[in-house]
Amino acid sequence: MDSSTLTALAFFFFFAGIAIYAVILYNGLVRLRNENDRAWANIDVLLKQRHDEIPNLVEVVKGYMQHEQQTLLAVTQARAASLQAASVEQKALADLKLDGALRGLFAVAENYPQLKANENFLKLQNRISELEERIADRREFFNDDVNTYNTRIGQIPDVFVASFMGLKPRSMFKVSDADRKQVEVSFQRATGA
Predict the structure, then answer these.
(1) What is the pLDDT of residue 31?
(2) What is the DSSP-derived secondary structure letter of residue 83?
(3) Cα–Cα–Cα angle for 80, 135, 147, rounded to 5 degrees
């Protein structure tokens, strides 16, 4: 073989190697993006299940908590806001508000012994608590996936492929400063009841 053929083969293998490497990077980023989407979909399914239980809970509680209409209103408004949220960030924020409203409802329910003894209330409370635990677990997985994704699209050489693909960093599920504070609950009892 002459030197021009060897040079041509060297360039061919060099560019073929670069192309193969770019395809590997591209496929890895696509996989990470899809894992993020799957992780969010898992959270979204659990959020939907929790949203479906809330009207039942409110109906059971209404009869016992006539003097706690503000608490019930906060739960129903938080649920409505959560159902209307479109983006991951909006849903995360609405979910945190709903968590706080539910914590407030369960705290107020402690002041009503007959409600705490109601079998339907106990089942719904246990179901929602179980869903909360599962959502918390899924949030952790989601945040891990988002962190890996954000790290990869910011590293060289992945950043060039990510830019070509139009990939942008994604937000993690975070707790706002307001949600870190303890829920304040006030009990309003009717006099003479």
Answers:
(1) 95
(2) H
(3) 110
